[in-house]
Amino acid sequence: MNQNLNQNQLSYIFKNMDDAVCITGKTGIIYYLNDAANRLLGLDDENSTNKIWEVIPYVEKNDDLIQLFINAIKAKERTLQDLVEYEKNDGSVCKLRVSITFLEEESLFVIVINNITEFMRVSSAFKRYTSSSIADYVLNTPGGEMRGGSKRDVSILMSDLRGFTALSTKLDPEVMITILNNYFENMVGVIERYGGTVIEFLGDGIFVVFGAPKDDKEHALHALKCAIEMQNKMEDVNRWNEDNGYPMLEMGIGINSGDVIVGNIGSENKMKYGCMGENVNLAGRVESFTIGGQVIISERTKEHINVYLQIAGKQSFLPKGAKEEMVIYEIQSVDELKLNNSVNEIKWIQHTGSTSDKNETQVSIYELEGKQVIEVKYPALVTALSVDERYAKLVTEKHLEKSQNIMIDISGDLYAKVMDVNEDFYTVCFTSKPDSFSDWAENFK
């Protein structure tokens, strides 16, 4: 002990400490305990001749604490630390951080116990309202709660449920929240397994960063593997939906990599861990090209990955304000990890009649700008429907671009994305169907 402090000064310090302090001999007999130890462990002066482990209630939850005391005294290690649970006499359970220091010259053990129950409760609640990696960063990094940011090379994953906005208008709020909670629960489990940080939930979408706040040299590979497992996990999501009488869901995922600014953004009273920059916006653009079940990555992400990729197709587009086109790739597998729901060759319904009668339907189509419908209609013909009723062949004089979103009027708003541009027709994939779609498809057949 510090020779510049007398016994009275030490007693005053220990007595007024918030942490519980006990001093025992090498046989475990208690020589000293402060008021905090009394309150926490339920000890008093009458216990002063007892051994430390003999005054602890003998219940299952206290086994680890008692064993820690015994191990420290037997081993006579300089310092022994651990986290344990402790059940008090009133039945309440505490989470304790215990530090036991052996003073060899005095043959004494100084036991310092921090009751971190409240801290753990706050930490647990914090992690429920933000990503666990952000919570760990803020709580355990020096200055982690301070405002400021830095430039980092990361990968951004954006996911979105196809047609969920239209679907949500038909669902009770309670049902919609139940469906989303189950979906998010499944997706976040996969994201955390690959070290991703959920920045926020964007309605029914998820915004994830890999490589921040914790460094990850293989952030692009982990983001892509995560995306494929997220898509495969949708089988469990939809199985649960079907068992509970809820509609099936489809999700698209886009990934882009590059420099972004990450850090704490906001005011002194309210802050969030954010991620911003051109590459975040581009990740959203990549995601907008997907249909349900697809994973699409940018060329920047592809350049970060040094393992085998199975590429189903690629295309290029000119981002708004950019001078060079951006190349994107549809991925079906990475390394040994494959998509379970990879889109196979489309099987079309075979008709026995001519192409000019029953199996040809006149419709009107509208272009979309973002999620807004441009109120200019163009005549078109639906000339074929796929067996799974997910795709159609569309003939129109209106020029359409690959990956363009359109709305088809079939006595209800049918939303679709142009998947392929052929010489005589466009292949479109339906992304959101009205209630009348089943009757329309049956009549088409």
Please provide a written account of the structure:
The protein is of the alpha+beta class and 445 residues long. The chain is built from 11 helices and 20 strands. The chain has helices at residues 7-15, 35-41, 63-75, 117-129, 132-140, 164-168, 173-193, 219-243, 278-288, 299-304, 437-444; strands at residues 20-25, 30-33, 79-87, 93-103, 108-115, 148-161, 197-202, 205-210, 251-266, 271-276, 295-298, 309-317, 326-334, 337-338, 361-369, 372-385, 391-395, 405-409, 413-421, 426-432. The strands form 3 sheets. Strands 6, 7, 8, 9, 10, 11, 12, 13 and 14 form a 9-stranded mixed beta sheet that branches. The longest helix is centred in the middle third of the chain and has 25 residues, at 219-243. The protein is elongated and about 95 Å long. Residues 143-147 and 352-357 have low confidence and may be disordered.
